[in-house]
Amino acid sequence: MRSILKLLLSYHGWMYEAHGKMSHTTKVWLALVKIFAGRKPMLYSYQACLPRLPVPTIHDTMQRYLESVRPLLSDLQFQRMAALARDFEHSLGPRLQWYLKLKSWWASNYVSDWWEEYVYLRGRGPIMVNSNYYAMDFLYVTPTPIPAARAGNAVYAILLYRRLLSQEQIKPLMVPGTLIPLCTAQWDRVFNTTRLPGEGQDCIQHVSDSKHIAVLHAGRFYRLRLYHSGRLLRPRELQAQFQHILDDPTPPVPGEEHLAALTAGDREPWARARRTYFGSGKNQQSLEAVERAAFFVTLDTTEQGLTGPDPGRALDRYAKALLHGQCHDRWFDKSFTLIIFQNGKLGVNAEHSWADAPIVGHLFEYMLATDAFQLGYDVNGHCKGEMDPDIPPPQKLQWEIPEECQQVIQGSLRVAQALADDIDFHTFPFKQFGKGLIKKCHTSPDAFIQIAIQLAHYRDKGKFCLTYEASMTRLFREGRTETVRSCSIESCNFVRAMMDPAQNPQQRLALFRVATEKHQALYRRAMTGAGIDRHLFCLYVVSKYLGVDSPFLKEVLAEPWGLSTSQTPVQQIELFDLKNHPDYISCGGGFGPVDDNGYGVSYIIIGEDLLTFHVSCKISSPQTDAHRFGAHIRSALLDLLALFSLGPK
């Protein structure tokens, strides 16, 4: 049955059919998938049935690559690049491809282990901003203003999720609206996981279980035990534990207050400091308590959210607080850090190497829904339920940090603060229209937004750029991501038409249709293993293993991504009641810019009528301004909708 299901799941023809028009072949295929999928699958039930990620042919990848860069290059530049590609295709390429095909036969996934190692773990710069990302709380609602109570419910909800995960009772993830399973391998390391710094390369430490969490407040570290008398602490008991930490007047010992800055700066100083100063005694024991914790919690000393006289700027501050904070109040190496602010707002900062954003997003959605709709608070804003007064308080961790180590800490803090101070952020809700109205235009909401971003970028900079949109490859075993190169010949033709006053609306609309159809085709290719960038990346890795140089691959992998974009999916819409409680939904999350002169854009489609954008860039770049680009995105969305004469009433 597994073999038959694996064979069935290798068919992707359903993805290329017109919306609402299903072929006879696909109907039969769906019926067979339903028969062989089983009735009550568990989280990992389909793992052995998922097909392996296919290796595209060299010829196809070269053709698709050249097509993707054509609108970005002059005729002379394109001729040169085409010559390099042809030479690679007929000389070195087949040799590298042979080794890659060989790997694909024995490895579960020919990309994922190299992607984790070379893109993440071998990076020597700060992971704060450059790699880590964040998720935000409800935008307009704060269930309680009491930080200890919010922490109590949030942590309890996360631990309920961990219990479901350990028992594999989380429903297997499916392609929305279908019975097609997605890979769930990344759920293995949600909890009890830490990235450890190494000299030359980091590694990921995952322990099978952890019965405590690590908590940081005002520069002091604590171990908070999650069990008492063989049972999990209840929300009211967790609230009391967090309140004890908040009320503790004990000052941090020398070096402790900024200790977490080691995880925010460059990796090599942190690796050397860990080996030199944290290999024995109190420091080793305390560091192990942090690294072996189920997850990390920061009780922040600031207030965030829609506060103050300028709510727009308040959201920008909120985003920066989640992305980097004060650079010494998050343990950026933990799989995720839950951040509780002084006014009850919360958020998550997540490390990227162990998994991609949808995995943390799935946990975050469960936590928000459980906190708001199941656990709740009493009339005074405290957690509900009883508490055992005999539960021992959290244990303050002990450190002995020598002067030399303190100097390393301060060096890491300076590097991290310089990076954080250079980040410009603009987070804004777009309320004029949403998915509901876009669907009336008979186009994909994601394609609509991506084309709008292309138009906004051209208006912002007066040129096109290499654009990265993250797509998932979890239709395949141990799949992670692939790149959709959203700046296409078709999207550029449409943008030029929008900038040309001589073009009439009908011509523009026709070009828009072609551009969105092309975008959807590119997205489908990426999802089905026919993308460009992971194949080229792996060919480059093989060339390095063999010690051979490829001018083509070296040039391709050095190209800057001037625009990096990602959609945050809402994966468990059934947990939320958007009709009766429209404000009870996360407003998504964001990440830092990939290129020094580029933009990072994350967006979430919430219900039928709301989009939220998170735009980042570098202040030091004279070419970028997050607020200016945000304004261009707003106007581009409205201009696109105007083509259909369906503007908001």
UniProtKB/TrEMBL annotation:
<keyword id="KW-0808">Transferase</keyword>
<keyword id="KW-0012">Acyltransferase</keyword>
<dbReference type="Pfam" id="PF00755">
    <property type="entry name" value="Carn_acyltransf"/>
</dbReference>
<keyword id="KW-1133">Transmembrane helix</keyword>
<dbReference type="GO" id="GO:0005741">
    <property type="term" value="C:mitochondrial outer membrane"/>
</dbReference>
<keyword id="KW-0443">Lipid metabolism</keyword>
<keyword id="KW-0276">Fatty acid metabolism</keyword>
<comment type="similarity">
    <text>Belongs to the carnitine/choline acetyltransferase family.</text>
</comment>
<dbReference type="InterPro" id="IPR042231">
    <property type="entry name" value="Cho/carn_acyl_trans_2"/>
</dbReference>
<dbReference type="GO" id="GO:0006631">
    <property type="term" value="P:fatty acid metabolic process"/>
</dbReference>
<keyword id="KW-0812">Transmembrane</keyword>
<feature type="domain" description="Choline/carnitine acyltransferase">
    <location>
        <begin position="53"/>
        <end position="634"/>
    </location>
</feature>
<feature type="active site" description="Proton acceptor">
    <location>
        <position position="352"/>
    </location>
</feature>
<protein>
    <recommendedName>
        <fullName>carnitine O-palmitoyltransferase</fullName>
        <ecNumber>2.3.1.21</ecNumber>
    </recommendedName>
</protein>
<keyword id="KW-0813">Transport</keyword>
<keyword id="KW-0472">Membrane</keyword>
<keyword id="KW-0496">Mitochondrion</keyword>
<dbReference type="InterPro" id="IPR000542">
    <property type="entry name" value="Carn_acyl_trans"/>
</dbReference>
<comment type="pathway">
    <text>Lipid metabolism; fatty acid beta-oxidation.</text>
</comment>
<dbReference type="GO" id="GO:0004095">
    <property type="term" value="F:carnitine O-palmitoyltransferase activity"/>
</dbReference>
<dbReference type="GO" id="GO:0009437">
    <property type="term" value="P:carnitine metabolic process"/>
</dbReference>
<dbReference type="InterPro" id="IPR023213">
    <property type="entry name" value="CAT-like_dom_sf"/>
</dbReference>
<dbReference type="InterPro" id="IPR039551">
    <property type="entry name" value="Cho/carn_acyl_trans"/>
</dbReference>
